[in-house]
Amino acid sequence: HCELVAIFVFDALEAQLPAPGRYGVSNGAEDLLLDTHPAKLREQYRVAFEQHQQHLKQTFNRHGIPMLSIATDAAVLPSLQQFWGNRQR
């Protein structure tokens, strides 16, 4: 018997666009200008990330697999300790 846990690791920029401004972005082949001034765009981006995260969590839960989300800028050990501590209760 073993227990599986899904760990969703994400960067802060995946969860939320940066403060209003114009940012140069590149995929290595193309350079684009990202304008984050529109509040509606920032809100749609945030909601899309939350929906994606919720979809993943629901999918794993259907199979009895808990999911832990950790941002790349978060301290990993406290997140793991909190997760495992909450699961023991």
Shape: elongated
Tally of individual helices: 3
Percent of residues in beta strands: 15-25%
What topology, given as strand order, has the largest sheet? 1-4
Low-confidence stretches: none
Mean of pLDDT? 92
| H/E element order | EHEEHEH
Task: From the alpha carbons, calculate the radius of gyration and give it in angstroms.
Answer: 17 Å
Structural class: alpha+beta
Find the count of extended strands (DSSP E, 2+ residues).
4
State the major sheet: 2 strands, parallel
Instruction: Give helix % range.
Output: 40-55%
The CA-CA distance between the termini, in Å, is 20 Å
What is the strand and helix layout of this fold?
Elements: E1 6-10, H1 12-15, E2 22-26, E3 31-35, H2 39-62, E4 67-71, H3 76-88
Parallel strand pairs: 1-4
Antiparallel strand pairs: 2-3
Summarize it.
Helix content is 46%, strand content 22%.
